[in-house]
């Protein structure tokens, strides 16, 4: 008992000092601060009397009841919220004042203990109502401290009631714990005024509510079953009470947990619960294009907020709820260092900001939704890429047809006429045959040039004539240019597949072109190497680099599409020392790799200023 008394004094008076000094400058009303000071100080004085029978102890108990009524009615804003709680507080104070005036004779009445239960229950319900209809996030955090500590005290007393039934634990042994429990509301009120945002108490509050509700259910069951079994023997009464308590306790724990979750979170679940909902909804849909709407719906249902939207750049992918009037908090959805989308969440009606628990839920959902959104985006891009491929193929066919019909066809028709004229002149011994032969030679040269231009558009001839490394060197290594490009290649002696050469040539050329246009780099390194059954490439520069959540442009999408067409991959990232790294790989066919020579040659080409 002495240790508990010392602990109460060591906690109470520093709290009073802190409230008296920084408390008036905090965002709380003077009435709330004074009420908490009186409550904490009275608890400290009450703890000096171990029996609680002295006149000072009885006066302190009355003052504590009045202080609790005032503080619970106006904490923390200074206004009674809800309005009816002011009448409850007034009635509680009137009862205590009447008892003092009557010389504590009201305490002998049978209803005296029940008025505590009724008054404190209504005051607690008022704080719960304030918690559910809070004005802003800070006030809700302040009320959390009150509810968490007060309900811990109630749950503690209920547990002590259960363990002292039928002498299981002596009541005297619980007196130090009861003394410490009585100080908890004052501690919670003080912390709510001084440091309301120092801890996230949602989980604590949920567990306290669950344990408190379960303890109340079990203790009520014990009292009712003991009364019902009063006619049995002592042993029979114990068995009846134990059986009823065990049955009700086992069945009631789950219900108490659900009720606590409903009170603390409302419609909002904890992060893991929201992720479970998201996983179930994603698994129920086979259409990847509905993923953005699914993510939005999960967040809206989990938080109960007014508005949730998801955007990709300036494009709105999905939204839930009306357009917001107030601020919207943005959360990035990042996958492999790239911002896939942005989730915007507006607070609930009557709130100005999201709570810390809200932010935790949205952040977890965004992290989990990143791969799903990336997959949905990749599917959309794949469909669009296929459509563009079909359109490009038809446009290329149209262009080739027009070229063959409008250019080459007349050219070959002219060649045919010239050949026929040459034959006639030659048979007749006409001297004009020489001029016709010269014109025919010129027309053949023109036709040959036109055919070469068509072939070059279809595939750069340098790839077939000299190979990938030489073609790239001619294309990207320009002496005296900035940035200075250095090409290093470790490839097999055998030629690469034509599709791989063409894709690597165009991807690396596009990457180097992006460096020249956007990176402001001084040097650029291109590395090519054959690794097993695939060709790996990397283009690194020392320029400005990409941001932590880069949105790819047309060039990057084009490079990724070229790699994906062959079953490869391409990534865009920031280098360890700055700059940008474009890295990827392309698969090599089995037939090609089987005939590859084991000897490796190293080719290094760089521009010299």
Automatic annotation (TrEMBL):
Residues 499-590 form the Histidine kinase/HSP90-like ATPase domain. It comes from the Bacteria. InterPro entries: HATPase_C_sf, HATPase_dom, Sensor_HK_TwoCompSys, Sig_transdc_His_kin_sub3_dim/P. It holds the Pfam family HisKA_3. The chain crosses the membrane at residues 30-50, 56-75, 84-106, 143-165, 177-195, 207-233. Keywords: Kinase, Membrane, Transferase, Transmembrane, Transmembrane helix, Two-component regulatory system. This is Histidine kinase/HSP90-like ATPase domain-containing protein. It comes from Luedemannella helvata.
